[in-house]
């Protein structure tokens, strides 16, 4: 059988080892006689799974003690509503939320937030992270929201703290809210620079449905009265994500992914691999005039690589040839067209190399 490489943006490739372990444990988890799907979320078996997942994620991201990790449901988009619902309780007389707009996902966040507050788009660009000197922030804003990796457009912030970025001390006092859905666990981050980090699971964590929220303690307990109880971060935190039934099977798979990440060498190792994989792919795209990319080099995503064939009439032939080689799900998002290769943690460098070989061969055939 042809080796398959899945470049889907999400739900996305998971480590084979994790899938094999889940398959082996499917009918009888650790001698319990049950599948994880069948367990009470309050029983000792599932509680042990949950606690290990929480502890491992905390270790992988070096989450400080004054932050809670919540395992919620609803996906990334629901957080666009749940964050204002949970943070604006102390600003009843009209809050302003600042946003940095860098593409489709921050755009969706902006539109949703307008239901709850006044919104100021402090800076906007869909081809590069706007330089921080140009951000027009609102004094006294409730918080500043950014999508640190735009999955569709491929614009990624340097959230390392090494460059003028989201962690700049000038922002002290304004909680930073970051949608890290499509690059969480792919690079080292300083969690203490953020007020809230959220991520849907279906890229670097596990199956769709699980949604991770990492929130600083002092931001809990500020929900608007209309905030649904099951989505009130304080209630969820006080009940260790079990105010209602959490997405148990998804949490179990996420926990297996966290163990896999630890065995690989953790987030620093994932970052090293991501740099190598992205460099390989962008180098091939940059050195072949059959292709083009549209994001400024300084802001190129290491996870989601959108690219275009200069001759778009060849798109279908490109995708058909890719599929025949086992290179799947390379079609770009419908809103932007072209191609996109998502190269998350579970994509081996061999997959990127196979794509690079195909890019070169396809271009050569067309000449
Ligand atoms: N934010 C980002 C950056 C995303 O990539 C996505 C999904 N691709 C979402 C939010 C929305 O997530 P969901 O579909 O889980 O609501």
TrEMBL record:
Pfam families attached to this UniProt entry: Aminotran_5
Subcellular location: Cytoplasm
Purpose: Catalyzes the reversible conversion of 3-phosphohydroxypyruvate to phosphoserine and of 3-hydroxy-2-oxo-4-phosphonooxybutanoate to phosphohydroxythreonine.
Main location: cytoplasm
Listed name of the protein: Phosphoserine aminotransferase
The UniProt record lists the keyword Cytoplasm: yes
Source organism of the structure: Duganella callida
PTM annotation (N6-(pyridoxal phosphate)lysine): residues: 203
Record's GO cellular component terms: cytoplasm
Enzyme class: transferase
């Amino acid at each position: 059988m042809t080796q398959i490489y899945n470049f889907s943006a999400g739900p996305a490739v998971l480590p084979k080892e994790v899938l094999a372990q889940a398959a082996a444990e499917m009918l009888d988890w650790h001698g319990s006689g049950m599948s994880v799907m069948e367990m009470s979320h309050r029983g000792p078996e599932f509680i042990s799974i949950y606690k290990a997942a929480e502890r491992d994620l905390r270790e992988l991201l070096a989450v400080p003690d004054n932050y809670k990790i919540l395992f919620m449901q609803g996906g990334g988009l629901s957080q666009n509503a749940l964050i204002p619902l949970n943070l604006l309780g102390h600003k009843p007389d009209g809050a302003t939320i600042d946003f940095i707009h860098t593409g489709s996902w921050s755009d969706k966040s902006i539109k949703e937030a307008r239901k709850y507050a006044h919104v100021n788009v402090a800076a906007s660009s869909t081809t590069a992270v706007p330089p921080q000197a140009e951000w027009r922030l609102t004094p006294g804003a409730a918080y500043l929201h950014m999508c640190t990796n735009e999955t569709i457009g491929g614009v990624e912030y340097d959230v390392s703290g090494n460059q003028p970025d989201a962690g700049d001390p000038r922002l002290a006092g304004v909680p930073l809210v970051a949608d890290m859905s499509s690059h969480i666990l792919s690079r080292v981050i300083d969690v203490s620079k953020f007020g809230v980090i959220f991520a849907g699971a279906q890229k670097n964590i596990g199956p769709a449905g699980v949604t991770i929220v990492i929130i600083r303690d002092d931001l809990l307990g500020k929900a608007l009265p209309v905030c649904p109880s099951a989505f009130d971060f304080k209630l969820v935190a006080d009940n260790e994500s079990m105010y209602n039934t959490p997405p148990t099977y998804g949490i179990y798979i996420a926990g297996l992914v966290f163990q896999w990440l630890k065995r690989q060498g953790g987030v620093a190792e994932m970052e090293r691999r991501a740099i190598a994989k992205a460099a390989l792919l962008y180098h091939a795209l940059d050195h072949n005039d059959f292709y083009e990319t549209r994001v400024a080099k300084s802001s190129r995503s290491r996870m989601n690589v959108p690219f275009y064939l200069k001759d778009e009439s060849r798109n279908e032939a490109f995708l058909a040839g890719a599929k025949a080689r086992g290179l799947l799900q390379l079609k770009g998002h419908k809103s932007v067209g072209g191609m996109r290769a998502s190269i998350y943690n579970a994509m081996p460098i061999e997959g990127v190399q196979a794509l690079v070989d195909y890019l070169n061969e396809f271009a050569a055939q067309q000449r």
